[in-house]
């Protein structure tokens, strides 16, 4: 029986540890463990530190399942199969704000500290080991835990630096957005790169000398040595688990010190500058809510979410909302508000809609593209179409097709709630003023309606009182 016949789908990003692999079956998220990984799991499940983390929701819900009850092909001869809770929406570190990455790092270190105190450790320290329930981080890589061995350092230190600590340093010390750095390379930022960036007096920034310069020097020193040789040298030098724990606590202290205050942003003040009247805003909120009432969508994409007001409105009627916004400062402020409220149904993400996250890693699929992950039931495209069509020169037919494409599997359950900003609107005129005359002859309300009607049944239409913006609800056909 083939994998496809059995309905089993392997997770493309789960292959680097052959001892445990994640796969999907009948809507379940499962993990297969070989004999050695099974031994680690049994020890983990009966440890003092792990069950409390499960209860607190700091690691993803996990339970063993009877393999004989699953239609798993014979070639997948796992000793044990675990079932994990399904994360509402998978996101990646290059889509997180500074505060999100920092809180994810702190959770990683908290869990590692608890593990070390109980005689366990983690094999790696990657930011990809964490996901989100709204504004709450959760550790997902159960297969990363193993028994700690005396005289050995934390194996995940390098990954932690490259995917968590270094990106935080770039933004905290240099005010550089880390997202492009992480997106460009799945393994994160190398110590050598950081050393070149933090030259001169920058080397004295908090944590740089120890975790960048010394780290880079140690890697160069042991470049030709085997892992076993390095471990033997450390044991002979008296390296102990207490030293590992002390080092982890020092890193945690450093991460807590790293801070970044979002600068003033044009988009943060958009509600005051976009030209909406109170009547416009009230009518728009009623329209959006009416479009979602009764639809009960599982996943809503709020594209161009800005301050998140419409994401909050959508969350009243949806199981989960992804609030995507391109400005890292806006997303950071939104995350802080959501975290303060304990909101677990809205996930804020840094996402340039004209250049959304593409597939990456091995084969281009180890990290799925945003489009591949965003299988939505409803899409809010409010005051964003003119930014794509005029501001970023994306042809209007492609904008419409892209928006409707997120609803490909929703069918008649799907809802596209779109706002078309007329060419004579002050915001559209501001964008057009920076473009050659006559560049966008097709950017007209009539053309937008024609394009939308070609893909959707337009079930509602309303012009705002200002007279320069029109709202639509489109239900995809087929």
| Overall pLDDT | 91
> Which strand order does the major sheet show?
12-11-10-13-14-16-15
Beta-strand level of the residues, as a percent range? Answer: 15-25%
Q: State the helix count.
A: 19
Give the helix proportion (percent range).
Answer: 40-55%
Q: Biggest sheet: strands, sense, closure?
A: 7 strands, mixed
In oligomeric terms, what are we looking at?
A: single chain
Task: Give me some keywords for this one.
5-stranded antiparallel β-sheet; 17% strand; alpha/beta
Explain the overall architecture.
This protein has helices at 3-6, 35-45, 50-56, 98-117, 157-174, 179-184, 191-197, 208-221, 227-236, 241-257, 270-273, 278-292, 309-315, 328-341, 370-373, 385-391, 396-405, 426-432, 445-455; strands spanning 8-10, 20-25, 28-33, 62-65, 80-84, 120-122, 130-133, 136-139, 145-147, 299-303, 320-325, 346-350, 378-381, 415-421, 456-463, 469-476. It is globular and about 70 Å long. The longest helix has 20 residues, at 98-117. Mean pLDDT is 91; it is low at 1-6. Helix content is 40%, strand content 17%. A 7-stranded mixed beta sheet has the order 12-11-10-13-14-16-15, sandwiched between helices. Strands 1-2-3-5-4 form a 5-stranded antiparallel beta sheet. Strands 6-9 form a two-stranded antiparallel sheet. It is of the alpha/beta class and 478 residues long. The protein contains 19 helices and 16 strands. It starts with a helix and ends with a strand.
